[in-house]
Write a structure and sequence with these properties.
mainly alpha; globular; cell membrane; membrane; Poly_Biosynth_Transport; transmembrane
Length: 424
């Protein structure tokens, strides 16, 4: 299966996930306005953080090593038994920690200790989320894109139904609660789909402590955890800074544009995650790696440019449709945000080389450096340009990140001409 065909399947599943996310945002915009959308962003950052920590951050590691070991049944069962042991242990640990700090987290992120019950429910849900991540990662590692897409579509449909039902009865609280419970619904559809797959074996569900495999997963997961931890934590810091400087209503405008950006980029990033990571992990020949990267640029860059241009032209209509007329001040933020999105995807195509080839130290160092530089640029640019400076900082930081990844790819592949995204 090539990237284009994989993208067709992932586009369908992404559309379903996107619909689920947009329903939540629309409901929150109705119930709580710009300030509520700003608070929603804080809660979703915590959810994103805990969703990754739920399984110890090894989903990408499972994808990588399943892609490598799928023709070696003995090593594959060792890997998956160790991965299950690792994921369940990590989810139990994070669930306990989250329960202990539920009240401070609710006050810090949502400004109200009464939301602590939501944090507690999220803590208990960690086990189900970890198992769902495990199942989806195994399916992804086998590059069973069709089955993965069907699971994601079914899970998203159930999630939308749950959001609509709970928000009708509990309004904002119900929408946030549905976000938490919806993540566990993926398990209800993922397990039967995996069970009926031709590659499923009961031994894949057997817990085992395997020092070698756990070491491989732990080393690889450091990269995923670094990226997953830094992104929501930096975004929380950015929101707190913007709120202190401009107020939560302005944060809502910035958050609205960011969510539109996340929504349409989900189509592209999902295709990269589902197809690109296991594909790169399974290729050892550097010439073939260079060809795969070049093909990715040929397909993905024109696509993201067209999508960004369409969003920019229709920005007023998009804002009114997804949020409300009260979010019109957000329209001035779209230009630099969308330019940054294009550079972001160009960077991701190259950065996945570090993930697939386990360049752990380099990846971790780069994530830390560029997270710090983004936060620093936000402080610098907002002081000079106001709220729009936060979006300038986003575009500028990804420009620097792209240049860094171009340097890494050039060194790894032995020359600029081998991987260059330029058309021959």
């Amino acid at each position: 299966m090539n990237l284009m065909r994989a993208s067709v399947y992932t586009a369908a599943s992404t559309a379903a996930r996107l619909l689920a996310g947009l329903v939540v945002i629309k409901l929150v915009a109705w119930f709580a306005g710009p300030e509520g959308v700003g608070r929603l962003g804080q809660f979703m950052s915590l959810m994103s953080l805990l969703a990754v920590l739920a399984g110890g951050g090894i989903s990408a590691g499972i994808v990588k090593y399943v892609a490598e070991y799928r023709d070696d049944p003995q090593r594959l069962q060792r890997l998956l038994g160790a991965a299950l042991w690792y994921a369940l242990g990590a989810s139990l640990l994070m669930g306990v920690v989250t329960l202990l700090f539920s009240v401070p987290l609710a006050r810090w992120l949502l400004g109200d200790g009464r939301y602590a019950d939501l944090i507690r429910i999220l803590a208990v849900a960690q086990l189900g989320i970890a198992l769902a991540n495990y199942v989806l990662a195994v399916i992804n590692g086998f590059m069973d894109v069709r089955r993965l897409a069907l699971v994601q579509i079914a899970g998203s449909v159930l999630n939308v139904a749950l959001v609509a039902w709970l928000s009708h009865w509990l309004q904002l609280y119900g929408a946030l609660l549905a976000l938490v419970l919806g993540q566990t619904l993926w398990l209800a559809v993922g397990v039967p789909a995996w069970w009926r797959s031709p590659y499923f074996q009961r031994g894949m569900l057997r817990l085992r402590f395997d020092r070698e495999m756990i070491g491989r997963l732990a080393g690889f997961s450091v990269m995923t955890l670094t990226a997953a931890l830094l992104s929501p934590l930096v975004n929380i810091a950015v929101r707190d800074h913007l709120a202190a400087q401009f107020g939560w209503e302005q944060v809502g405008y910035w958050q609205a544009v960011s969510k539109v950006s996340d929504a349409y980029l989900l189509f592209i990033t999902t295709a990269i995650n589902v197809y690109y990571l296991p594909k790169l992990a399974s290729i050892d020949d550097r010439a073939l790696l260079a060809l795969e990267i070049r093909n990715a640029y040929r397909f993905l860059l024109p696509l993201v440019v067209l999508l960004a241009l369409a969003i920019f032209i229709a920005r007023g209509w998009v804002t009114a449709l997804l949020f409300s007329e009260g979010f019109a001040p957000a329209n001035v933020l779209y230009g630099p945000q969308l330019a940054g999105d294009v550079i972001k995807i160009a960077s991701f195509v190259l950065s996945y080389l570090m993930l697939a080839k386990a360049m752990t130290r380099l990846f971790v160092a780069s994530e830390c450096v560029f997270a710090a530089s983004y936060l620093g640029l936000v402080y610098l640019f907002t002081a000079s340009f106001g709220l729009v400076g936060a979006v300038y900082a986003f575009a500028a930081n990804y420009t620097l990140y792209f240049l860094f990844n171009a340097w890494v790819a050039r060194r790894f592949l032995g020359g600029l001409g081998q991987w260059s995204p330029q058309y021959p």
